[in-house]
Design goal:
- By secondary structure, the protein is α/β, with parallel strands linked by helices.
- It has a single domain, classed as 3-Layer(aba) Sandwich (Rossmann fold).
- It is 40% helix and 21% strand.
- It has helices at residues 15-27, 38-43, 64-73, 89-97, 110-119; strands spanning 7-11, 31-35, 50-55, 80-84, 102-105.
- A five-stranded parallel sheet has the order 2-1-3-4-5, with helices on both faces.
- The radius of gyration is 13 Å and the shape is globular.
- The two termini are 24 Å apart.
- The mean pLDDT is 90.
Amino acid sequence: MTTHNPLVVVVDDDLGLLKALGRVLRAAGFETATYSSAEEFLNAPPAARAHCLVLDVQLSGMSGLDLQRHLRANGSRLPIIILTAYDDNGVRDEARTAGCAGYFDKQTDVDVLLRLIHSL
């Protein structure tokens, strides 16, 4: 029987952050799948065993909130954590209303993010 570490999917168009967050997640014991756009994620979705999705709001092309709405409309129950550089009350409210598991500014301590991911 093969045992896998939980898979965390990250969608962010900031390639530096995408790479750094991938390293942090792997160091914390997670497998990662990273995508630089919502469209890339939708065209090559990871295995159904994904633990959660860490999603940027402002992406080129389809926004993170549009992707969140699309996933929910298609019945996905995948926990979504929003990570944004541009915190906005309206966006935060919309993300939470759509059922995000967490909403963080990109300046948030990574340990806070990791604690939430572990708790899901």
